[in-house]
Amino acid sequence: MSEVRVLVGTRKGAFILTSDGKRTQWDISGPHLGGWELYHLKGSPADPNRLYASQSSGWFGQMIQRSNDGGKTWEAVGNKFVYDGVPGTHQWYDGTPHPWEFKRVWHLEPSLTDPDTVYAGVEDAALFRSVDGGQTWAELSGLRSHGTGPRWAPGAGGMCLHTILLDPSDAGRIYIAISAAGAFRTDDGGKTWRPINRGLHSEHIPDPTAEVGHCVHHIAMHRTRPSVLFMQKHWDVLRSDNAGDLWQEVSGNLPTDFGFVIDVHAHEPETIYVVPIKSDSEHYPPDGKLRVYRSRTGGNEWEALTKGLPDRDCYVNVLRDAMAVDSLDSCGVYFGTTGGQVYASADAGDSWAPIVRDLPAVLSVEVQTLP
Amino acid sequence: MIRVVLPAHLRTLVRVNGEVAVEVAGPATQRSVLDALEASYPVLRGTIRDHVTQQRRPFLRFFACQEDLSHELPDAPLPAPVASGVEPFLIIGAIAGG
Asked: Helix or strand or coil: residue B9?
């Protein structure tokens, strides 16, 4: 019978939640690497027991941990992230030039085919790659140096490269997203990049339709249709049907088009999920009701999913990397909150139940469907 | 041998429970002790001082013999009791944060 393994990164360590395909009884393991911030953990599609974890601390900086046994044991691998050449400057919060400084790894994206190849999205925004299982890292500096970098600026959480999508049908195509710069695409494996932000409209920047400067929160794709992208921006939910060349807003009837997460059903490429969040600055669910919204039409028409979720007095956030889906026949959907709950739905969102309620604030959720 | 006391999280990383001891060739200085420490425990590279600039990470301090040595030059000699192994070189994490 299939098994599901949920990898949870929190402010104070990693937790691994496992269940059989019924997804009703869960075993909770952790904290792993306790006391450190685990921004993200992810398993290799080519070897599911090979996991990578970003472990960081204000005291001791960045570590990368690797597991070869599905998270039972961990070993520290390379943590040297050095920008290629003279890194130059980006915009600071006040608009003045500010030098690029490495702070932490936000997202790790293992290769689809090679367990030893993994990409790291870092703050200050850049993309690194390791081809030796995380021992050494080299920047794909064509992204940072393609020309728009001096106009990038940090969002409230820092200037982070937080989203990395590898195209399953084209090994040369990678999408990434940066707050607050926008989305970018390479078609040659990371040598050259270009912004793909046409159609975005952001009123918090001087030119709302600028080439860069947009606070993209997350992007998702379905593996069978990698040129269709779905984006949760600071405000607005959007889609692109041409690999990011042009975006159109599909916020439709959402109660607020602000949020962080967005994900796609494992078997229905037009079924997508978001968690609307109230903003400016409140960053909790509208009216204290935690609701996932699902669109079965690729956007515009949304339904609130409420069964099993708090319908009052809920003031948590759901951060950008904290939603994932499994690939069982009845698609499972998972998300974690800053209140330490991890919710799961084994029926594509129709009903929800917490797997665990009292973890540290959840930073990321990833799911592995194991044979 | 130079005795070094690491913060708890770094002891976990290097998988030791108590002090560590390192051999230093030449004068005992912050730089030579940290070089020897990182040679013995490569996992510590980048956790105490920056990989490139070699600057002490801002939330760490170096204490010994009831003195704060954090702002001494990296090549300044450490106190004789540290160099002789009588007193440990303490790497301290700030008691800050949530």
From this structure: helix
B98 lies in a domain?
no
Range of the structural domain that residue B14 is part of: 2-93
Residue of B nearest to A360 (CA): B98
pLDDT of residue B47: 98
Q: Is A63 in contact with B7 (Cβ distance < 8 A)?
A: no
Contacts of B94 in chain A (CB under 8 A): 59
Q: Two tokens at A6?
A: 């949920």
- CATH number of the domain bearing residue A254: 2.130.10.10
- Model pLDDT, residue B95: 85
Q: What is the DSSP letter of B28?
A: -
Query: Could you identify the residue written with the tokens 């303490």?
Result: B90
Closest residue in B to A61 (Cα) is B47
Per-residue pLDDT tens over the stretch A10-46: 999 999 999 999 999 999 999 999 999 999 999 999 9
Query: Is B61's Cβ below 8 Å from some Cβ in A?
Result: no
- As for how many domains chain A has, the answer is 1
Contact call for B51 and A60, based on CB within 8 A: no
Q: How far apart are the first and last CA of chain B?
A: 36
For residue B62, the chain A residues in CB contact (below 8 A) are none
Strand pairing class (A3-10; A13-20): antiparallel
What is the DSSP pairing of strand B2-5 with strand B89-93? Answer: parallel
Q: Do A82 and B51 touch (CB under 8 A)?
A: yes
Count of alpha carbons within 13 angstroms of residue A1, beta-carbon side: 8
Closest chain A residue by Cα to residue B97: A58
Instruction: Give the pair of three-digit tokens for residue A184.
Output: 């970018």
Structure tokens at A157: 């959480």
Which residue of A36, A59, A80 is in closest CB contact with B93? A59
- Give residue A42's domain range: 3-370
Is the whole-model pTM more than 0.90?
yes
Predicted local distance difference test score (pLDDT) of residue B98: 64
ipTM of the complex: 0.95
